[in-house]
């Protein structure tokens, strides 16, 4: 199974590149507007419990919860991107009843998991007169919900069901089967596209508790659980495509009582486990273990001095983790959090909010670019409410904000999930204090911190002194577009989507578009157009002077040459010439085991071929060109720091060679997202920059294709930038993008290859 590449995008470069950035307005949750995608109101006469939410790969939000009282059920509502929540919730238990198990007493422990190929799975357990049963409901793409049971009817007690989905759609379900004095961990898997569960794993016989699961990008299953016999948190793994037999990988924790483990997997292949630890009544500590992509574990303590902590949770981005937990010190209840970027060292723990009037009951989610949001319960006049805080990647936690308040009743159990564009959605339980029947609801809120998508189609060149009219289209997924305006060369501001500009100077001219949505989120995009001279024709009635013709020299006759064989017709931009390019390189691993991770792309004719990785001219590893033409490989780096800094790497396949790059110099691409119309938005960072500066982006055809292109974009003080590349123009073309800060060397952006 291949890892989806965020650094190799199947699109093409047009004549002029576009630069873009977004700036968020005041962070504010939208919970009152009944417009698209901002509120989920599903009333139920009875008790609503434990709402959960996740985002599917097609950006559909899925909320699930269970009801109790006289009509137990598990219910699901969905919200397509930019649309409203479904007006009715699907009753999963009613769609597949089990009358053979007798009376239906209740449900518990609802969980939701999603995969990158459109798979969504909801899990829970049911209590019947004839026994308990773990059940799952699976939906693939736009298909129906298919309900099945990984456990089958069981006479013993079942507890703690949990599910996870791999990139290719494999589903794993774990639960605890309590028999006599044992609490046995069991796990089964469901192959992609099938509805038949495998046989159970070899049973882990202990008094086990609280299993958690996750899939690595390689397809390996990892998990953790609490061993109540040894007071340890245990990590296990199952190799990709192997029989579902668990291999105990690591036992964490010491002589103290370890409990409440949570687990997350990042897109760069690392695993983070957090748990709480208590010894002899001392304050409860928060500990973490992180496994590198190479399999090496390192442990650390996360809690703040003088605090007692509870219920840690961890979430993953493309390149790191964020952990959050409920905390208490002499100032009262609080919520703390810690951030882990590349590597295995957590940043110092931060206080998100302090001096709460009650326990936090917090939850955390992280967007692909590292933006994180924590939500928690607060108490006002002894009534639970919901609040939250957001932390941009490489930023600080914002001041806490009220997510939802009520004049009567209580709001509780908040959960949060992240969209790919950096927006967040949350769900919680709303129990109004009204007369008559107790009607409870599942409510939802939206945190939109991204600006509109801006599209425009400028010409590559224009003529000096001739008016040029340009139009911009701004669209926002969640809110109305508030304003659109242009900044012309010379600093002239023009309001509106359309602008007419008459160039007065030759060369590359930069025009800037700014669009804001109704919540104040802004997108800034730059357009570069080359201004060329006017072609002057000769006066009417005159003809240009004739060019002198040299005298004809007659050469002696030569025998006719043999006709050359006809050449195969190949479009000039079809990239028929084999090529391979190294597009990303960065240092990974540890000081004891340093490694370098390389990504590249090759021509279509090299798909399936073996690529050599050469360091300073010597072979140090191999990789294979995947079907999508991508290359990804990790190789050992030299041990001395000086040698690591000097080493130069290149990819070689056949007669094709990439240019050499150093691991100490690259543009890190955190996200590459396909936009409407076939364009792609790239977010990246040049780690060596520590100030805001102008970046020049040059696109050079790898073989054939159009001429080279240039554009500029501003980075922020941390070297972060955003650029949007236009839609494909010529199938088969390939462009190498390089980026150069002012007064510095160049780094490499992703190659953009045309679709088809």
Please give a structural write-up.
With 756 residues, the protein is mainly β. Helix content is 1%, strand content 51%. Strands 1, 35, 37, 38, 40, 41, 50, 51 and 54 form a nine-stranded mixed beta sheet that branches. Strands 2, 3, 31, 32 and 33 form a five-stranded antiparallel beta sheet that branches. Strand 16 and strand 17 form a beta hairpin. The longest helix has 6 residues. The two termini are 22 Å apart.
The end-to-end distance, rounded to whole angstroms, is 22 Å
Spatial shape: globular
Number of helical segments with 4 or more residues? 2
Oligomer: single chain
Beta-strand share of residues: over 45%
Secondary-structure content class: mainly beta
Q: Calculate the mean pLDDT score and round it.
A: 78
Q: What would you report as the Rg, rounded to the nearest angstrom?
A: 30 Å
Query: What's the β-strand tally?
Result: 56
Q: Please give the largest β-sheet.
A: 9 strands, mixed
Helical content band? under 10%
Tags for this model:
single chain; 756 residues; mainly beta; nine-stranded mixed sheet; five-stranded antiparallel sheet; 2 helices; 56 strands; 1% helix; disordered N terminus
């Amino acid at each position: 199974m291949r890892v989806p590449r965020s650094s190799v995008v199947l699109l093409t470069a047009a004549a002029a590149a576009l630069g873009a950035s977004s700036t968020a307005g005041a962070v504010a949750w939208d919970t009152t507007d009944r417009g698209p995608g901002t509120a989920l109101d599903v009333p139920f006469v009875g008790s609503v419990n434990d709402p959960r939410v996740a985002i599917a790969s097609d950006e559909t939000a899925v909320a699930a919860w269970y009801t109790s009282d006289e009509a137990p059920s598990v219910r699901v509502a969905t919200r397509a991107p930019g649309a409203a929540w479904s007006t009715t919730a699907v009753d999963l238990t009613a769609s597949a009843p089990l009358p053979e198990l007798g009376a239906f007493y209740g449900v518990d422990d609802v969980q939701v998991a999603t995969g990158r190929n459109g798979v969504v799975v909801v899990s829970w357990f049911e209590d019947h007169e004839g026994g308990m049963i773990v059940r799952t409901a699976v939906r693939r793409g736009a298909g129906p919900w298919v309900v099945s049971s990984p456990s089958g009817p069981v006479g013993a007690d079942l507890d703690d069901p949990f599910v996870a989905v791999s990139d290719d759609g494999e589903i794993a379900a774990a639960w605890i089967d309590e028999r006599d004095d044992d609490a046995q961990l069991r796990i089964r898997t469901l192959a992609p596209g099938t509805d038949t569960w495998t046989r159970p794993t070899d049973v882990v016989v202990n008094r086990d508790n609280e299993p958690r699961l996750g899939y690595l990008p390689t397809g390996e299953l990892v998990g953790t659980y609490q061993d109540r016999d040894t007071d340890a948190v245990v990590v296990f793994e199952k190799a990709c495509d192997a029989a579902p037999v668990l291999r105990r990988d690591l036992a964490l924790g010491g002589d103290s009582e370890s409990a409440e483990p949570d687990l997350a997997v990042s897109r760069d292949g690392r695993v983070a486990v957090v748990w709480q630890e208590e010894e002899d009544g001392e304050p409860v500590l928060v500990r973490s273990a992180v496994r590198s992509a190479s399999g090496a574990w390192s442990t650390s303590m996360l809690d703040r001095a003088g605090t007692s902590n509870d219920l840690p949770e961890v979430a993953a981005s493309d390149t790191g983790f964020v952990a959050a937990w409920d905390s208490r010190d002499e100032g009262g209840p609080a919520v703390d959090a810690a951030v882990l970027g590349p590597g295995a060292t957590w940043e110092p723990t931060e206080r998100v909010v302090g001096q709460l009037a009650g326990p936090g009951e917090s939850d955390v989610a992280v967007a692909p670019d590292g933006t994180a949001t924590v939500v928690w319960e607060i108490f006002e006049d002894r009534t639970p409410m919901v609040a939250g805080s957001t932390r941009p990647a490489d930023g600080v936690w914002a001041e806490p904000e009220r997510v939802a308040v009520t004049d009567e009743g209580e709001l509780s159990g908040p959960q949060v999930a992240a969209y790919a564009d950096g927006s967040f959605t949350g769900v919680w339980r709303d129990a109004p204090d009204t007369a008559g029947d107790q009607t409870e609801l599942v409510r939802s809120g939206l945190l939109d911190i991204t600006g509109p998508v801006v599209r425009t189609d400028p010409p590559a060149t224009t003529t000096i002194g001739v008016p040029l009219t340009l139009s911009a289209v701004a669209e926002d997924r969640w809110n109305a577009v508030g304003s659109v305006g242009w900044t012309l060369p010379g600093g002239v501001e023009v309001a509106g989507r359309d602008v007419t500009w008459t160039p007065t100077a030759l060369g590359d001219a930069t025009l800037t578009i700014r669009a804001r949505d109704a919540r104040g989120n802004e997108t800034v995009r730059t357009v570069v157009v080359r201004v060329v001279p006017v072609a002057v024709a000769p006066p009417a009635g005159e003809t240009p002077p004739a060019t002198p013709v040299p005298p004809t020299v007659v050469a002696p006759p030569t025998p006719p040459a043999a006709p050359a064989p006809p050449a195969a017709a190949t479009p000039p931009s079809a990239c028929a010439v084999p090529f391979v390019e190294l597009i990303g390189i960065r240092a990974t691993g540890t000081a004891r085991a340093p490694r370098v991770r390389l990504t590249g792309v090759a021509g279509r004719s090299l798909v399936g071929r073996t690529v050599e990785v050469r360091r300073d001219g010597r072979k140090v590893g191999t990789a294979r060109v995947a079907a999508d033409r991508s290359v990804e490989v990790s190789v050992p780096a030299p041990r001395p720091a000086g040698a690591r800094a000097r080493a130069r790497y290149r990819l070689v396949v056949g007669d094709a060679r990439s240019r050499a790059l150093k691991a100490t110099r690259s543009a890190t691409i955190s996200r590459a997202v396909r936009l409407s119309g076939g364009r792609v938005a790239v977010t990246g960072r040049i780690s060596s920059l520590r100030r805001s500066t102008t970046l020049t982006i040059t696109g050079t055809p790898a073989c054939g294709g159009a001429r080279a292109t240039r554009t500029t974009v501003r980075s922020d003080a941390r070297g972060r930038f955003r650029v949007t590349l236009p839609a494909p123009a010529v199938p088969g073309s390939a462009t190498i993008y390089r980026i150069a800060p002012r007064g510095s060397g160049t780094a490499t952006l992703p190659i953009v290859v045309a679709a088809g």
